[in-house]
Amino acid sequence: GFIVTSSNDTIQGLIDYKEWSKNPEVIRFKTAPSTETETYTGKDIRYFVISGKEAYQLYCVRISMDEVELSKLSYGQDTSYITDSVFL
Question: What are the strands of the beta sheet with 2-5, ordered from one edge?
Fold first, then answer.
């Protein structure tokens, strides 16, 4: 796969693909099998591709803080949220 850094550099290499059950917050990456693994977050990269599997891009989104459990749902519009950068 490859990563695109915050400064728009594209680096080919190997991504430790975990078949994430939710959007990844960090990825482990190395440029060759014999090199040391580095950890990257949304502060370091803005896009990455696991060749033939998945691609993720960094987006700034509003995330609802409302309950998701049916027994705890409130009535009316939920206006509570946080703003965060996440890989989608």
Answer: 10-12, 2-5, 45-50, 54-64, 81-87
Spatial separation of the C-alpha atoms in residues 19 and 36, rounded to whole Å:
22
pLDDT at 46: 96
Please compute, for residue 41, the number of CA atoms within 13 A of its CA located in the half-sphere on the CB side: 4
Residues 22-49: pLDDT tens digits? 889 999 999 999 999 999 999 999 999 9
Q: What pLDDT was estimated at residue 80?
A: 83
DSSP string for residues in the chain: -EEEETTS-EEE-EE-----SS--SEEEEESSTTSPPEEEETTTEEEEEETTTEEEEEEEEEEE-S--SGGGPPSS----EEEEEEE-
Grade residue 67 by pLDDT with cuts at 50, 70 and 90: confident
Name the one residue in this structure whose structure tokens are 């990455």.
48
